[in-house]
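Incident log, structure service

09:12 report received: a user says their structure output differs between two submissions of the same chain.
09:20 pulled the input from the user's history:
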Amino acid sequence: MSRYNSNNDRLNDTFFSDISTHLDREDELTSIAVTGEYTVGIDDYFLEVDTSSVASTIYLLDPTKVKKGKVLWISDNVGNSATNNIIISSAGVTLLTISTNYSTALLRNNGTAYVRLI
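09:34 re-ran on a clean worker, output below:
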């Protein structure tokens, strides 16, 4: 079965293998509650953003200093990102904005940049 991202681009099966590897490790399954500004840690994988009262900015680490293939899941945990956006920034530039309630972004580091897969 072929898999496609939100841009209807076919996804590489290697990506899904990498995700499975990450998800099979219990130490990497811990979610982090985020409100306001947050700088992603090297071991972060799941960020649950509380958008109930303020917008949030997520600062990604330099992709050249993070393991190639690392995935990061960022989600609007309370369903208010249409009002209080989640801004995801990389190298001082806005990479994307989550502005639809309960939306999620799945990012993967390709070694030089973060790519949105979902």
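09:41 both user submissions now match this output. Likely a transient worker issue. Closing.
09:42 reviewer note: The chain has one helix and nine strands. The chain has one domain: 13-116.
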